[in-house]
């Protein structure tokens, strides 16, 4: 989905299948079309393969701002739980560009396999804009052990070669 793909109305949702184990953090690049300070505008739900899903809200001035860099709707202060990602323009207000908010969502260490991520529109007036999702993974223990064994074998062969 790109910035032109918006969720308007309520309750609209988009579910992205993931099916990855060992996901400590999910990064989203999203915003809304207008903005409402303190309003819950849309939700993100992390669904595990087994167990209860976890839902967090995107709130105006917390995780979202006005996509069109309009300080009259959600203020010009930085969002408390997000970083700006500028699309174009002069990167300041008053500006002629748009911005998205980069948010990192931490999952519990015992979360298990992340089955899917769902974005749900809560505020039917503001359209949610989802531009990207990045899932951070941790290496599997077997892969780390295999890498360690390979490095140990190389070190053994190098030492054996130097002794000759």
Structure described in brief:
The chain has a single domain (6-138), classed as Sandwich (Jelly Rolls), CATH 2.60.120. Helices cover 16% and strands 39% of the residues. The chain is built from two helices and nine strands, in the order βββββαββββα.
Mind explaining what this structure looks like?
- The chain is an alpha+beta fold.
- The chain has one domain: Jelly Rolls (Sandwich).
- It contains two helices and nine strands, in the order E-E-E-E-E-H-E-E-E-E-H.
- It has helices spanning 71-74, 141-163; strands spanning 6-7, 13-21, 25-32, 40-48, 54-59, 83-86, 99-106, 113-121, 128-136.
- The strands form two sheets. Strands 1-9-3-7-6 form a five-stranded antiparallel β-sheet, with no helix packed on it.
- The longest helix is centred in the last third of the chain and has 23 residues, at 141-163.
- The mean pLDDT is 76.
Write the H/E string, N to C. EEEEEHEEEEH
**Residue-averaged pLDDT, rounded?**
76
Number of helical runs?
A: 2
Unreliable runs: none
Major sheet: 5 strands, antiparallel
Strand content: 35-45%
The assigned structural class equals alpha+beta
The end-to-end distance, rounded to whole angstroms, is 60 Å
Examine the secondary-structure arrangement and name the CATH architecture: Sandwich
Strand runs, count: 9
Shape summary: elongated
Oligomer: single chain
**Tally of domains:** 1
Radius of gyration: 21 Å
Name the helicity range. 10-25%
Using the coordinates shown, work out and report the CATH topology: Jelly Rolls
Strand order of the largest sheet: 1-9-3-7-6
